[in-house]
Specification:
This protein is α+β, with helices and mostly antiparallel strands. It has helices spanning 19-27, 88-98, 117-121, 145-156, 187-196, 211-217, 235-251, 345-354, 360-368, and strands at 31-34, 37-40, 44-53, 59-68, 75-80, 108-112, 163-168, 174-182, 200-203, 222-228, 266-268, 271-275, 280-284, 291-292, 297-302, 308-313, 318-324, 328-329, 334-340. Helix 7 (235-251) runs antiparallel to helix 9. Residues 73-249 form the Succinylglutamate desuccinylase/Aspartoacylase catalytic domain.
Length: 380
């Protein structure tokens, strides 16, 4: 394993935003320098970025794989597990690493399968001090552990790239139908998400301190994919992510091939959580990816001894983005996350009904539904 030079937090040691121009110049040359590791055109190497040290003094390192095509071109970073328990993206990046047929014809890939290595080691969303790395960007070389890690990631990965894709899942005890979240008011971000080809895009800047927002502010158009659950590598989520990543690589001229179009496209600006008003056992009537109207039954809450109680209805028109995977609920707890589709909802529903059962959209909908209990709302 090739290791980079040791990076520390001395002021001025980590590259600043001004180094973007230097990186842009260097990538047009034969050799790309990562610490003491040189990566030439057509080469692929592993480097390790040292972000901290354990109490025993051993280095804490982020593993990075850099793959360069035979010709200079765009640089795309793909990252996963910024939240250490969200490892579907890790599985997707590993598939890229293992794919013998994915050959770059130009440009460079920076693959970061696990960003939050400390959270990953503990199967935790957070760092050991309970800070959220994805709320710590752009960070500071003299700040907390999270702040120092964020600064290094920004300087050593994001600043080197022209574009970025950050892979996420739902939070613990929830699942998400695949959806892109991006600031579509930035033209290059819009073009990047259109190339990815996701059915649902939530148009938002992202919370303050998150990686994608800091990357965009640093001049690297970046979006995130939200799909599936924590602590899992779900095969259909991986298939979905790889379809989109390859679409982007094709549109950027980095690999050969023809992009695959999604079943439909819709961009939404608002979402809403449907919450329970009573407690009990949940029987769902919809699954992730379903289209719902105001008044559509979402779930029924039964008592533990079988008495039927509250029926939860959708208060919005839209698409089911996410759901709780807990089979029980209590008053005020979130049950279903709806993306509000302002228009064209009926046309989308018609497209979905016409899709074959073996389409990726239908397969991933059915697969995600296995994490919950879906029953006919008219059952006796």
């Amino acid at each position: 394993m090739i290791r980079s030079a040791r990076y520390n937090s001395r002021p001025g040691h980590s590259p600043s935003a001004q180094r973007r121009m230097k990186f842009n110049r260097e990538r047009q040359k034969t050799v790309d320098q990562w610490g003491d590791v040189s990566i030439g055109l057509g080469e692929r190497k592993n480097v390790h970025l040292e972000v901290s040290a354990s109490y025993s003094g051993h280095p804490v390192q982020i593993p990075v794989h850099v793959r360069r095509g035979p010709k200079a071109g765009p640089v795309l970073f793909i990252s996963a597990a910024v939240h250490g328990d969200e490892i579907n993206g890790t599985g997707a990046i590993r598939q890229i690493l293992l794919d013998p047929y994915l050959q770059l014809i130009s440009g460079s890939l920076i693959l970061v399968p696990v960003v939050n290595v400390l959270g990953f080691e503990r199967h935790s969303r957070y760092l050991p001090d309970r800070r959220d790395l994805n709320r710590s960007f752009p960070g500071s070389a003299k700040g907390s552990l999270a702040s120092r890690m964020a600064r290094l990631i920004l300087d050593e990965i994001i600043e080197r790239a022209d574009y970025g894709i950050d892979l996420h899942t739902a939070a613990v005890r929830r699942t998400n139908f695949p959806n892109v979240r991006a600031d579509l008011d930035i033209p290059n971000v819009r073009r990047l998400t259109e190339a990815f080809g996701c059915e649902v895009t939530v148009n938002e800047k992202g919370p303050a301190g998150c990686l994608r927002r800091a990357a965009c502010e640093a001049g690297c158009p970046t979006f995130i994919l939200e799909a599936g659950e924590v602590w899992k590598v779900e095969s259909l989520v991986i298939e979905y992510a790889l379809r989109g990543i390859k679409n982007v690589l094709m549109r950027l001229g980095m690999i050969a091939g023809q992009p695959q179009e999604p079943a439909y496209r819709t961009a939404i600006r608002e979402t809403a959580w449907i919450r329970a008003d009573s407690a009990g056992f949940l029987h769902f009537h919809v699954a992730p990816g379903d289209i719902v109207n105001k008044g559509t039954p979402i779930a029924t809450i039964d008592s533990l001894v079988g008495s039927e109680g509250e029926v939860i209805f959708s208060t919005e028109n839209g698409i089911v983005l996410g759901m709780t995977t807990l089979p029980v609920t209590a008053p005020g707890e979130p049950v279903c996350h709806i993306g509000l589709v302002p228009r064209g909802r009926n046309q989308i529903a018609e497209v979905i009904r016409s899709l074959p059962k073996n389409s990726l959209h239908q397969r991933i909908r059915d697969d995600l539904a296995t994490s919950i209990m879906v029953v006919d709302p008219h059952r006796k």
